[in-house]
Backbone:
């Protein structure tokens, strides 16, 4: 099965900040993942990525908070987006 694009969005939050979301459904899980999704959710401010959730091949599910990378426990796509948006809102305060 070829990768299927489920979502690709770029949302402006202000003149200085935007969110970019890309999610694919795969034919089989990536190495180090137990699910069939490939994703990248990023919050960009002043052309710098300050928050990113992704699951690079071989690294598994994780998120980047500025320069710090921490594991992320993937449950499902709804929870992934809810967690990402909660972090975005916290960073915007």
Residues:
């Amino acid at each position: 099965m070829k990768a299927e694009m489920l979502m690709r969005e770029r949302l402006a939050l202000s003149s200085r900040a935007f969110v970019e979301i890309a999610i694919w459904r795969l034919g089989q899980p990536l190495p180090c993942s137990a699910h069939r999704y490939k994703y990248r959710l990023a919050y960009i401010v002043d052309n710098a990525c300050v928050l990113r959730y992704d699951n690079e091949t071989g690294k598994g599910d994780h998120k980047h908070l500025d320069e710090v990378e921490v594991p992320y426990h993937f449950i499902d796509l709804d929870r992934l987006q809810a967690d990402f948006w909660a972090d975005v809102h916290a960073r915007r305060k």
Observations:
- DSSP finds one helix and six strands in the chain.
- The CA atoms of residues 18 and 44 lie 5 Å apart.
- The radius of gyration is 13 Å.
